[in-house]
C-alpha cells in the first residue's frame, strides 16, 4: 500500500482562525467539515465520481448536488447524517450537521 504525505499546516491555520469566530456563535469546528468540503470540491473537478447508471445500464446520470453521508458509531448506535448540497455550503455550516 502506498501512502502520500500531505502538509496540513495551512488547513490547521485556517481552522484555528475560523474556530475563534465559530465558537463565538456556539459552533464547534473540527477538521471533519474541511474534509467533507474538500470531497465536494473534488466532485466538482471529477463529476463522474458523483454519478450513477440508469436501470437499463445505458446512461450515466451525473448528480448536480453533493449529498455526503458519514457513518458514526455512537453509544446510541450507528448514526449516518446526510449533509445535503455540500457544494453550496460553507465549512462552518457543514460543521453544524
TrEMBL record:
It comes from the Eukaryota. Gene3D superfamilies: Chloramphenicol acetyltransferase-like domain. Residues 4-94 form the 2-oxoacid dehydrogenase acyltransferase catalytic domain. Pfam families: 2-oxoacid_dh. It comes from Oesophagostomum dentatum (Nodular worm). One of its GO terms (molecular function) is acetyltransferase activity. GO terms for cellular component: mitochondrion. This is 2-oxo acid dehydrogenase acyltransferase. Keywords: Acyltransferase, Transferase. Signal peptide: none annotated. Its cofactor is (R)-lipoate.
Amino acid at each position: 500500500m502506498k501512502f502520500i504525505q500531505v502538509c496540513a499546516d495551512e488547513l490547521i491555520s485556517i481552522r484555528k482562525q475560523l474556530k475563534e469566530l465559530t465558537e463565538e456563535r456556539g459552533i464547534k469546528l473540527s477538521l471533519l467539515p474541511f474534509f467533507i468540503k474538500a470531497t465536494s470540491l473534488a466532485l466538482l473537478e471529477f463529476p463522474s465520481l458523483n454519478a450513477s447508471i440508469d436501470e437499463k445500464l445505458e446512461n450515466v446520470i451525473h448528480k448536480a448536488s453533493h449529498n455526503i453521508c458519514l457513518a458514526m458509531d455512537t453509544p446510541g448506535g450507528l448514526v449516518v447524517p446526510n449533509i445535503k448540497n455540500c457544494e453550496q455550503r460553507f465549512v462552518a455550516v457543514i460543521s453544524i450537521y
